Amino acid sequence: MKSNYSIIIKSVLFVSLLFIFWSCNDDNEIEVRNWQLVWEDEFEGSAGQLPDATKWNLDIGRGPNGDGWGNRELQTYTDNPENISLDGAGNLLITARQGFSSGRINSKGLFEQAYGRFEARIKMPYGPGLWPAFWLLGNDIDVVDWPQCGEIDVVELRGQNPNVIAGTVHGPGYSGGGSIPRYFGFENDRFDVDFHLFAVEWGEGYVDYFVDDTLYGRITPDDVPGEWVMDHPFYILMNVAVGGDYVGFPAPTTPFPQTMTVDYVKVYKEMN
After folding, report:
1. Domain range holding 248?
2. Catalytic: which of 73, 151, 201, 204?
3. How does residue 1 score in pLDDT terms, banded at 50, 70 and 90?
4. What is the pLDDT of residues 125-149, one digit of tens each?
5. Residue 151 falls in the annotated catalytic set
């Protein structure tokens, strides 16, 4: 999610992989682990309420440099409940609106963890030029900068392809358009129709990607051309971007407003 994607490269990858659909087999069997819940937000509260400030920071504006968060994104993030708020029924609503405004939250300094299972149950938005994401960033970003800090994208979706999602890692030598992705797609379904559970199981030397009960990809140090930096605490981010290098400009047919509806976010640690 962080920065510097190439539209052409990513578009070619998505088109070429659009009908490659992953499933569990002998090469990606799910390893049974003893998970213990250590952090969660089920977004209980009154309709219109902002996310719990003890768990989430709100990102505001167009990025530290005013450059669309390094991706040439078009939206301005706000703390307006029309862009980010609880719905009163146990969900968080992150809504992109014509104009363009949206919402983004992070757990930096509030919750950070190395390794474990990070999951969220989400119903995605759709439409050309929309870019919803649930992702993790290394907590040393203010010291070593991006991409040396590392990034794990649990799930990203290009709104123009609502039946395909990507899970990705970024690090030194493999960031932006050169990041290392894994893809999962539906032949006869879309991620904006209903909720799905998106997760990574992250340990020393691997990141496993899940949709619902399906393990669809693994990334290890052998898969990256640079230093493996997924080895220290990361924090959580969730947002809906509008435009940017990954998705391009919204089309006249893009239906606004569009909402990323989050049922819950949970984090686990593996117990020996």
Report:
1. 7-24+33-270
2. 151
3. confident
4. 999 999 999 999 999 999 999 999 9
5. yes
